[in-house]
Amino acid sequence: MGKKLSIITVSLNNIVGLKKTVESVRSQFYDNVEFIIIDGGSTDGSLDYIKEHKGMFNYWVSERDHGIYDAMNKGISHATGEYIQFLNAGDTYYNTASLSQIFEANIQCDIVYSDYAAAGNFEKYKMPEKLSFKFFYTQSLNHQACLIRKRLFDEFEMYNIDSPIIADWEFFIKSIILFGATTQYVPQTFILFDFVDSMSNKQENKELIRYRRLEVLNCYFPLLMEDMKYVEAIESSRTFKIIKCISKLRSFFIK
């Protein structure tokens, strides 16, 4: 039997997405899991569905909360697995062997991350093999395509509920860059991500995300932020763009 995984699904008035996620979890070959449902007090029939299938869940609750990250923190407090995965309502595994495949990779690190695809058109998104401050400066890991060791939440911190929309990014950059959490990349398309219900992909949230990211970066990494100004200046220069173009052409002809 492999490592125990706690799957936490957060949902609010998304019964269609919730059903998809529950069915996807049920279809997995890997069985050393506990399944936790944190519903935000839905009024669309989700509660009836949860009660009807309560035998599938190790823990569930349906009540008002203070946002998605507060709901995730509730799930963490009830998790007993070595690793935690957040698979929100509407998100599904890429195939029935997704979990068994990632655990076959002999995962040992604090944060294990993989590639993902869009639930709508199956467009694939590849993550870097090595993570860096520069990566987190402009991007983030896909939260659902990660397995996170529970002890990180016990030793470092839970999600910051005062950091709307990007508390997962804040957790990643602080735990990895600031606290030195170990990471492991597993090259597989792990999950199908529901972009439609993703808060971070809504246009009206873009400015809030940018502002909050800068707050976090300037608070915890002021010296690195100074260095990034020079990096951005170099990368935007005409000379750098020409060198980058030549490098791409060279690699093309070498192939």
Strand content: 15-25%
Return the domain count: 2
Compressed to H and E, one letter per element, the order equals EHEHEHEEHEEHEHHEHHH
**pLDDT under 50 segments (min length 5)?**
none
Computed over alpha carbons, the radius of gyration is 19 Å
What is the CATH T-level topology of the largest domain?
Answer: Spore Coat Polysaccharide Biosynthesis Protein SpsA, Chain A
The amount of helix comes to: 40-55%
Number of strands: 9
Largest sheet, strands/sense/barrel? 9 strands, mixed
- Going by CATH, the homologous superfamily of the largest domain would be Spore Coat Polysaccharide Biosynthesis Protein SpsA, Chain A
Distance between the termini: 44 Å
What number is the mean pLDDT?
90
Kindly provide the name of the CATH class of the largest domain. Answer: Alpha Beta
Task: Tell the overall outline.
Answer: globular
Number of helices: 10
- CATH level-two architecture of the largest domain: Alpha-Beta Complex
What structural class should be given to the helix and strand makeup?
A: alpha/beta
